[in-house]
């Protein structure tokens, strides 16, 4: 009995490992194909996209960087994501505090509003917003666009920050008030240090969201000089769709910084994904 | 304690959201009853004409049916893969975090990259995997340019990008299950299936429901992968409400119609968000 139990356990564990490895390979194989083919000339890709490169050649990368204007793309992506993160952090921290506990009348109503604002389609507000901003000459560049992406990311950030503020004991706030702190000092000196894990989580998620955003950026950013890296990669496709090696190098240039960022911030990133979906 | 300052603190977030989401949303509502072109300053109210014309347009019904197919795929395939991998990971002490990271890689990459990679190195008939297989005796049709397969080819890419997210969420929920209940069930002699059916699943049910509602909402909003990979083609075989609205607004300059479609999309979203809000508030998340 004990022996067969152990055998079953080992068998189950082997089967589960095989299944997990299968899905891991599924997740990674397209990326793996990008890596190997980014070093190959296009004829070798045509011959066999699964083969390893005969030699490691950086030709595709050098040419890609030259033709695709990625330097300016990275600058725009950083400006866009940076502005979005700053706007969201500022607005969501203050709102998260105001909506935690019972600080404003109509808290439920505001929460309900932000819940709906989080789930409405972008197409509900995109078209009038576009034509209004275009009339105000605000269409085209990164900074105005970051306000739109920030508004889209606000509700999630408010809810997350709110749960952090709810977790701070009331006594702490009362003590600070008795010591004579005003609201600004209370928030800045007492509360913000305590909710800093929330601030990091919000920054990580919002940075990635805005870096990867497509519908809003493709509508509001205009002209190559204003394109983010992802839009530049998109733009390459029409011109270089027969230069597969070049395209794969372009994809690598876009993938690597995101992967690096993800690896560095994984804990906060996973916290952010799970928050709101899982209680506790 | 209700201090006036708290309203000031709420103001930046509220103002930004009102300016970007609420006011333009209201304008969309008004615009849907007009023939506005977007560029001209004048517009006429045309009553329900936009809605009537849309309801007579077969492309609208094609789009709606594609959104529904999309929803059926997203409520089943990634859910099944996510649940399976989450349960397996729950029992894997060693290597769990590395699997989590690997499963999330497609999720953190942008739609532009993922769409390009699948289009270029997998579906491409000359450079891609499919082309290579076809030169070696297989006969796979061109998946993205064939109207019978294009929708599934695009969905495959999006599902590949999305399922890892569900794994992570389900796994986190599974790990929140109270150990007392699990041990009690084990003492009473539950087998693995019973344990999941009667202890783990009820415990993660709120999370599971939320994810289903989100998938439902997003199925009616889906845009990125379709627009990037097929632009709604071939012959509208992958047209979605979102791409249909988008081309009214920016290709044929019929913003009134685009607004009407946007409004219809919101209706689906709204029903689901009411359900979502109910669940979320009920669960106290």
Question: Explain this structure to me?
Answer:
The complex is a heterodimer of chains A (280) and B (285). Chain A is mainly α. Chain A has 2 domains: 2-47; 69-240, Orthogonal Bundle (MetI-like fold). Chain A is 78% helix and 0% strand. Chain A contains 13 helices and no strands. Chain A has helices spanning 2-37, 42-47, 59-68, 70-99, 107-119, 126-135, 142-166, 170-178, 183-194, 196-212, 215-220, 229-240, 244-274. In chain A, helix 4 runs parallel beside helix 7 and helix 4 packs antiparallel against helix 12 (229-240). Chain A is globular, with a radius of gyration of 24 Å. Chain A starts with a helix and ends in a 6-residue tail after the last helix. Chain B has 285 residues and is an all-alpha fold. Chain B folds into 2 domains: 1-27, no CATH class; 32-283, MetI-like fold (Orthogonal Bundle), CATH 1.10.3720.10. Chain B is 73% helix and 0% strand. Chain B has 13 helices and no strands. Chain B has helices spanning 5-31, 49-55, 58-74, 77-91, 96-108, 111-123, 129-135, 150-174, 179-187, 192-221, 224-229, 241-250, 255-283. In chain B, helix 8 packs across helix 10 (192-221) and helix 12 runs antiparallel to helix 13. The radius of gyration of chain B is 23 Å and the shape is globular. The two termini of chain B are 23 Å apart. In chain B, 48% of the residues are buried.
């Amino acid at each position: 009995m004990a022996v067969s139990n152990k055998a079953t356990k080992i068998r189950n564990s082997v089967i589960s490992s095989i299944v997990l490895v299968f899905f891991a390979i599924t997740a990674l194989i397209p990326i793996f194909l990008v890596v190997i083919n980014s070093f190959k000339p296009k004829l070798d890709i045509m011959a066999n996209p699964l083969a390893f490169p005969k030699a490691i050649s950086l030709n595709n990368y050098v040419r890609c960087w030259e033709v695709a204007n990625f330097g300016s793309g990275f600058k725009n992506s950083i400006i866009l994501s940076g502005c979005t993160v700053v706007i969201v952090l500022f607005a969501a921290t203050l709102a998260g505090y105001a909506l935690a506990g019972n600080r404003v009348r109509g808290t439920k109503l505001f929460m309900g509003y932000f819940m709906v604002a989080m789930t409405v389609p972008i197409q509900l507000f995109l078209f009038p917003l576009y034509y209004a901003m275009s009339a105000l000459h605000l269409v085209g560049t990164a900074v105005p666009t970051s306000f739109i992406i920030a508004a889209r990311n606000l509700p999630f950030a408010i809810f997350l920050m709110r749960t952090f503020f709810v977790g701070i004991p009331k006594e702490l706030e009362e003590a600070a008030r008795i010591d004579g702190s005003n609201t600004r000092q209370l928030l800045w000196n007492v509360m913000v240090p305590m909710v800093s894990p929330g601030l990091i989580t919000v920054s990580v998620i919002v940075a990635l969201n805005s870096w990867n955003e497509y519908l809003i950026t493709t509508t509001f950013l205009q002209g190559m000089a204003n394109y983010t890296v992802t839009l530049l990669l998109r733009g390459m496709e029409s011109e270089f769709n027969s230069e597969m090696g070049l395209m794969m190098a372009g994809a690598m240039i876009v993938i690597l910084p995101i992967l690096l960022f993800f690896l560095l911030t994984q804990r906060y990133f996973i916290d952010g994904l799970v928050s709101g979906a899982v209680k506790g | 304690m209700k201090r006036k300052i708290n309203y000031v603190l709420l103001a930046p977030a509220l103002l930004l959201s009102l300016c970007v989401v609420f006011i333009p949303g209201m304008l969309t509502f008004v615009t849907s009853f007009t023939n506005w072109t977007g560029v001209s300053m004048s517009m006429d109210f045309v009553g329900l004409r936009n809605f009537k014309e849309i309801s007579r347009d077969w492309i609208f019904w094609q789009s709606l049916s594609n959104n529904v197919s999309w929803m059926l795929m997203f409520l089943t395939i990634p859910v099944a893969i996510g649940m399976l991998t989450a349960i397996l990971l729950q029992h894997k002490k060693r290597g769990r975090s590395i699997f989590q990271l690997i499963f999330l890689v497609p999720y953190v990459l942008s739609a532009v990259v993922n769409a390009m990679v699948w289009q270029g190195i997998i579906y491409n008939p000359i450079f891609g995997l499919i082309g290579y297989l076809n030169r070696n005796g297989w006969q796979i049709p061109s998946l993205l340019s064939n109207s019978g397969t294009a929708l599934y080819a695009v969905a495959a890419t999006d599902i590949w990008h999305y399922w890892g997210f569900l794994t992570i969420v389900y796994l986190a929920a599974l790990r929140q299950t109270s150990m007392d209940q699990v041990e009690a069930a084990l003492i009473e002699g539950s087998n693995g299936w019973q344990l999941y059916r009667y202890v783990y699943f009820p415990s993660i049910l709120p999370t599971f429901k939320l994810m289903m509602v989100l998938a439902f909402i997003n199925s009616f909003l889906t845009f990125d992968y379709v627009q990037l990979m097929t632009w709604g083609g071939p012959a509208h075989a992958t047209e979605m409400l979102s791409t249909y609205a988008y081309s009214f607004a920016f290709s044929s300059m019929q913003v009134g119609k685009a607004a009407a479609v946007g409004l219809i999309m919101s209706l689906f979203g709204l029903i689901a968000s009411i359900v979502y809000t109910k669940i979320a508030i009920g669960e106290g998340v």
